[in-house]
Design goal:
The chain is mainly alpha-helical. The chain contains 19 helices and no strands. It is globular and about 55 Å long.
């Protein structure tokens, strides 16, 4: 289902954010951008549901759990209408927080209320998927209620252009999935569900720690795009400042994850997950590495319109990960998966840094 969400995302969270940031004072233009993205996502969703039907019918591992996959469908629908990219581009970040928190606050009480046995797993999937849908409905209501855009408009050339603009970023996000989402899938096929459990316990904690800095990065991106054309030096200064401040915070957080890994695993997931401590230590410096790659790639390469080069680096790194992940998982199971993730993310960051230097964009003295 994460692959299908990736398909409907299509990189709009970066390309559409960039467009909205540039034209945020032109209501007519942002209306055109908004509806072209929504209709593009609807077309991609049709393709996503066709893929889902094929998977449920012909892939034996998923044939027996088709109803669980179907219960996750609101995840895709919510992804179509949840306009994170719009709020980012308009620099109205507080509304993202409002939509997300309002929806997610319902997950735990609804899960406790309705999920009582293993037979209710489809309900757990439905609740989790519906959160995205609810957040999307709240987001659309806010946009309409505040009059940020005009009514519905269908402009096929604009839809075609939005898909064209997002193509290289879509390739990039697809390549990223080769060493993120695919890691769990490959680990499950080779090492089994227990290894996936150990890996996911550590990875969930790592993602939670990393997520603390995501709102800062989401706020910086539209600001850089807004400054880029008119005040380039200020945009570059903001990028450099984010390396020092956000990068510094990420490094401190990564150090804490590495040192406190046994206590975090013990408190976070309890007994029986001792194997996850080693996994978490291998992942501990991922928040720092990924923040740097985000600054070098998203904040700098994309704003400088190096989309093709950005996607090539990620595709190359994704293929590299596929070459190393199988032997690492075969020999080291869930720890091997964590090692492959760290090596690949480090390669991404290094290649982006070297590319920027080759273009005489010096972010680090």
């Amino acid at each position: 289902m994460q692959y299908l969400v990736l398909l409907t995302d299509y990189g709009f969270n970066w390309t559409a954010t960039q467009q909205i940031a540039k034209y945020k004072n032109d209501k007519n233009e942002i209306t055109q951008i908004f509806w072209s993205v929504i209709f593009s996502k609807l077309m991609l969703a049709v393709a996503a549901f066709v893929v889902l039907a094929i998977v449920c019918l012909f892939v034996s591992q998923y044939k027996n759990v088709w109803y669980i996959l179907l219960a996750f469908s609101p995840l895709i629908i919510g992804n179509i209408i949840y306009p994170v990219w719009f709020f980012q581009g308009m620099e109205k970040m507080k509304w993202i927080t409002l939509c997300t928190i309002s929806a997610r606050c319902l997950i735990i009480p609804l899960t406790f209320l309705f999920v009582n046995s293993s037979e209710d797993v489809w309900l757990a999937a439905l609740i989790q998927g519906s959160v995205n849908l609810l957040a999307g409905i709240i987001g659309l209501f806010l946009i309409m209620q505040r009059g940020w855009i005009f009514g519905i408009c269908f402009n096929f050339p604009k839809i075609k252009q939005s898909l064209k603009d997002g193509w290289h970023v879509f390739l990039s996000t697809s390549a990223i999935s080769l060493y993120t989402t695919s890691t769990t899938v490959i680990l499950g096929f080779i090492a089994g569900p227990v290894a996936v459990g150990y890996f996911n316990a550590a990875n969930t904690i790592r993602n939670a720690a990393q997520g603390l800095l995501n709102p800062i990065m989401q706020a910086i991106y539209p600001r850089i795009n807004s400054l880029f054309d008119s005040e380039y030096k200020k945009a570059l200064s903001l990028i450099k400042k984010s390396i020092r401040i956000v990068g510094g915070l990420a490094f401190i957080g990564s150090m804490m994850l590495f040192i406190l890994a046994p206590y975090i695993i013990s408190i976070g997931v309890g007994k029986g997950y001792e194997e996850s401590v080693t996994v978490l230590r291998w992942m501990a410096f991922l928040p720092f590495v990924i923040i740097l790659s985000n600054i070098f790639g998203v904040q700098t390469m994309l704003t400088h319109d190096y989309k093709k080069q950005f996607s090539r680096i990620l595709i190359l790194s994704g293929v590299f990960n596929l070459l190393i992940i199988f032997p690492l998982i075969i020999h080291y199971s869930e720890t091997g998966a964590a090692i492959s993730l760290l090596i690949t993310e480090s390669l991404v960051t290094l290649l982006m840094y070297l590319f920027l230097r080759s273009k005489r964009i010096y972010l680090i003295k």
